[in-house]
Amino acid sequence: MGVALTRSAQWSAAGYGTRTLEITPLNEAILKEIIVFVASFIYKHPQEAKYVFVEPLEWKTNLDPSAFESGYIVSETTVKSEEVDKDGQPLLSVSVPHIRVRSFGQLSRLLLTAKDMKLKEAQACIEANRDPVTKILGLDYNTMKEDTSVVNILDKITKDEDPESEIKMKLGMLLKQLDLHLLNHSLKHISLEIRLNPTIVKNDIELLKHFSGKGEQTVLESIDYTSDYEFSNGCRAPPWRQIHGEICYVLVKPHDVETLCITCSAEGVFLNGGKTDDEGEINYERKSEIYKDLVTFLKERSAKFSENMSKQDVRFSGEWKKKEALKEAPKKEEAAALQKALPASGKSVLEKNYINFGKSQMTKRLQPSLNWKATFDFKDKGASKDTQEEKHGRRLERSGPPVSPRRSQLVRKSAEKIEEIISESSSESEEDEEPPDHHQEANAGLPSEYWQIQKLVKYLKGGNQTATVIALCSMQDFNLAQETCQLAIRDVGGLEVLINLLDTDEVKCKIGSLKILKEISHNPQIRRNIVDLGGLPIMVNILDSPHKSLKCLAAETIANVAKFRRARRAVRRHGGITKLVALLDCAQNSGEPSQSSLYDARDVEVARCGALALWSCSKSYENKEAIRKAGGIPLLAGLLKTSHENMLIPVVGTLQECASEESYRTAIKAERIIENLVKNLNSENEQLQEHCAMAIYQCAEDKETRDLVRLHGGLKPLASLLNNTDNKERLAAVTGAIWKCSISKENVTKFREYKAIETLVGLLTDQPEEVLVNVVGALGECCQEYENRVLVRKCGGIQPLVNLLIGINQTLLVNVTKAVGACALEPESMMIIDRLDGVRLLWSLLKNPHPDVKASAAWALCPCIQNAKDAGEMVRSFVGGLELVVNLLRSDNKEVLASVCAAITNIAKDQENLAVITDHGVVPLLSKLANTNNDKLRRHLAEAISRCCMWGRNRAAFGEYKAVAPLVRYLKSNDTRVHQATAQALYQLSEDADNCITMHENGAVKLLLDMVGSPDQDLQEAAAGCIYNIRKLALATEKARYT
Questions:
Q1: What are the two backbone dihedrals, phi and then psi, of residue 714, each rounded to the nearest 5 degrees?
Q2: Is the CB of residue 855 less than 8 Å from the CB of residue 896?
Q3: Residue 97, preceding peptide bond in cis (omega within 30° of 0)
Q4: CA distances from 704 to 246, 544, 712, 741 (A)
């Protein structure tokens, strides 16, 4: 049910976290199906209906408590069901307007109670519970894999000790069946829709204009477009509305109602919010139901229009036919000319295709888009295609009646979308699908090879075994890397034949077919076609063949095809991952006397092809897990010890892809793979060096791995590879590995020894972004040490770093701000940064929409303010800068808040700046953050509060805004730096008498007494000073009492 609601249902884009279901026919159909399922549940599945949900479904109900009758305890504002769980809690409870339901039985009864309100209640429930399966069954049952078989489910039931396990599994299967039903129902609904296009809408409006005007007999007083400008695709709606399927807007004045502002869209016609009084802009929000066309809409809205239309129906339909006849006339002339030019035998086919095309024109679905210039003429393309088929005596095999090109394309895409939704989790959603298919536009300019290959395919279709083998060999003589040759095979139905040959028992035919498929599957369109034709399961089965040549060819072809997620999923589903992992074992079981001996060449080739296929498949998380579970890591580790470079590249490539997962990084350490990766950095093969460096980059997130790279001598080859800048892919991988290794200080010392820092500074200019991100990241880590900051300055690295602050790449900006901030710790570097206007650029990054960039910029500003000459004046010189910083305290991101608090601590050192930020409301905003459990934020917040206490009556204001009591709790933290900052803040706040009372009431004295004995002198003094102020107030109070 969750997949259908996520992918098929149409949600509004009303802002983050507030999306609602749109009022569309598709959503209404989905909700009605859910209502039918739930309403009948109590009768069809009485046992499961008693099951108590893991979490209740909660939403705001529109039902009045009085609607609930027998079986419920009803008061004026609350309702409780008499049916309770084993703990005595009601399974349905209402506290107006909130409702909580905990079983399907109660959901069924609720729908009976709701009567006419069923649809609204179902909608409210779905909107408030976006993941109902998790709430009903718990997280474990929501994450059941899509390929879970009934046997596995039964096995889980028998092994699980939970008495409710069987009911939960049955419910899980029922909900999954509902999900599939909803998806199929959605597909059926989508496929039956006939949507409007600009031509239809324009014709309707022109006809209505023809019958509009003054007088009682006209259908309308007037009908006009809101915009006179028409885009090349026929739409008049602005581009940002065209992406929502909107075509145009019309103002209609019927005889008997006010002027209507109507939206005509691909989905249909509806009333919008009309034009605004102030600016004349259209309020695009839908205010009515969607109607299939303009006439139907107006008949519903205006009785006069409906009456006059019934009188004008004959004339109206006559005008429509005239327009259609005018449109059809040139088409008929064109068809007649074509028929004369063709032999008699070919006329019937062309006539049939032309009629089919004419029908398709009536039902094609055209959605407005931003590709105005790329309008597509179906007529020309259809005619040229038909002509081509007649010319060469070919006929397309059709399994059913003719379908509109747009309709068939829509149904196919919808089916593929539904299939992907049903069959895969969202783990691969970030990966792009293959580009859309495109066919040869015309016969003109096709080389002779195109026709020769098509003749050979005919021999494949109709020849005997010998002719088939000869045809396969002849096809291999062509340049199959050329797109024309690849598409020639596909266009004449050669792919089906080649895939069918894989199912034969003749090894020669299989080898010939796979050799061709291996070559042509480099083409993205061919890859998709192979998957659509069911070629992958057959290739996976061939991996079990005893013939090593067949195994190699099948694995290589799988490697080429598995470049998009649907193909990778198909390989896994048909057991391909396990079989491919088994191929890696061929080399190690070749019967050689020792590992150091050369493997049999064919065994090595089998293992290489297996690794190549696993490399392609490993781009998906599910496949990575499947490789690990199939025992792939030890086998890959064993193959790393070989000296065959063509084997090492796919092996290291697979490891590099998989190393993005924590489980793989742990296994890579356990299998001692880092040592071999380092060794292969010294290879002469650039591609191998690149993949080894990338694998180190992925693994070096872990300190132990960074130490292993250093211990095995990997830092020196990485530093030396920086000098070769021609291969940008390898340079990106090497700089990435250096960046991650630089997180360890010991490695930074080594890099300084190998002169890597000077080389990195030289790479700050004239490099692609993927290299710059890594170079700047490495310098940011290196500049944490004083010697390296000086080195970067002396090598002229400050200016290129500051220049990079104007970029737009978010990762690059995060790294640059960190590097500039680290350099600003050195006064001489800070002078250069200030001279280059670097501080202003950093300040402007506080407006960046990405929270990581904001946080990194705020952290970088701290050392800039500390080390700048006349920092107070510099900060005030930025117009609106202080207000911007204060407003960032409203952020929801903890890192942004901590960094801004640190910046405020430095800004507040200047009294004038402190006065300005106080006026901007810094005190209430800081006080609002006090109830946090994040120690990093606590520390910097306490420091900021301590500094802000130095102005006016801010000390008392912090007390008034309830910031003191939460600060006392900070003293219970395990972080000593939080203790120090908090003690300083409490010391400053204790200068106010009311704050002292609050501290005493919240037990601050006992906590501070413990800290007086701390070895940290600053903490001692702050704690003692705070206790002194509290005690001083207490003595003054005692004295006042007795005097």
A1: -85, -15
A2: yes
A3: yes
A4: 57, 40, 12, 11
Confidence grade of residue 371 (pLDDT, cut at 50, 70, 90): very low
* Burial annotation 661-671 (CB, 10 A radius, 16+ → b, else e): beebbebbeeb
CATH fold, domain 921-1040, is Leucine-rich Repeat Variant (1.25.10)
User: Contact 890/925 with Cβ under 8 angstroms?
Assistant: yes
How would you class 400 by CB atoms within 10 Å of its CB: exposed for 0-12, middle for 13-18, buried for 19 or more? exposed
Q: Which pairs count as long-range contacts for 845-851, CB under 8 Å and 24+ apart, including other chains?
A: 845/805, 845/813, 845/817, 846/884, 846/885, 846/888, 847/884, 848/810, 848/813, 850/810, 850/813, 851/891, 851/893, 851/895, 851/896
φ, ψ at 246 (rounded to 5°) = -85, 140
pLDDT of 366 higher than 70: no
Residue 378: pLDDT band with limits 50, 70, 90: very low
In contact, 360 and 403? CB cutoff 8 Å: yes
Per-residue three-class SS string for 847-913: HCCCHHHHHHHHHHHHHHHHHCCCHHHHHHCCCCHHHHHHHHHHCCCHHHHHHHHHHHHHHCCCHHH
Domain segments of the chain as ranges: 3-141, 198-317, 447-533, 921-1040
Q: In 3D, which of 795, 711, 712 has the Cα closest to residue 752?
A: 795
pLDDT at 1039: 67
CATH 3.30.2280.10 for domain 198-317: yes
Mind listing the pLDDT tens digit for each residue in 520-567? 999 998 999 999 989 999 999 999 988 888 999 999 999 999 999 899
Q: Report the distance separating Cα 653 and Cα 397, nearest Å.
A: 42
Residue at token pair 């083409």: 523
Which residue has 């696993």 as its token pair? 614
Q: Which spans in 502-547 are helix H?
A: 507-520, 524-532, 535-542
CB 951 within 8 A of CB 987: no
Cα separation, 775 vs 766, whole angstroms: 12
Nearest-CA neighbor of 674 among 643, 644, 646, 715? Answer: 715
Common-topology check for domains 198-317 and 921-1040: no
**What length does the chain have?**
1043
pLDDT digits (tens, 9 = 90+) for 780-825: 999 999 999 999 999 999 999 999 998 888 999 999 999 999 999 9
Structure tokens, 552: 């190699």
pTM: 0.58
Cα 805 from Cα 782, distance rounded (Å): 19
CA distance 781 to 827: 19
Pick the more confident residue, 528 or 14.
528
DSSP 452-488: HHHHHHHHHHH--HHHHHHHHHHHHTS-TTSHHHHHH
Enumerate residues 6+ apart whose C-beta is below 8 A from 683: 645, 648, 689, 692
Contacts with 1040 (C-beta within 8 Å, 6 or more apart), sequence order? none
Cα(168)–Cα(138) distance, integer angstroms: 9
Q: Please, which pLDDT band fits residue 760 given cuts at 50, 70 and 90?
A: very high
- The candidate with the shortest Cα–Cα distance to 456, out of 492, 506, 503, is 492
Return the closest-CA partner of residue 847 out of 815, 804, 878, 801: 878
Are 972 and 1006 in contact, with CB atoms under 8 Å apart? no
CA distance 905 to 910: 10
Segment 173-215, tens digit of pLDDT = 888 888 888 877 777 766 556 578 898 899 889 988 888 888 8
User: Under 8 Å CB-to-CB from 106, ≥6 apart: which residues?
Assistant: 81, 83, 91, 92
Structural tokens at position 73: 């305890």
Amino acid at residue number 523: N
Fold type of domain 447-533: Leucine-rich Repeat Variant (1.25.10)
> How much is the pLDDT for 887?
92
**Which pLDDT score is estimated for 779?**
93
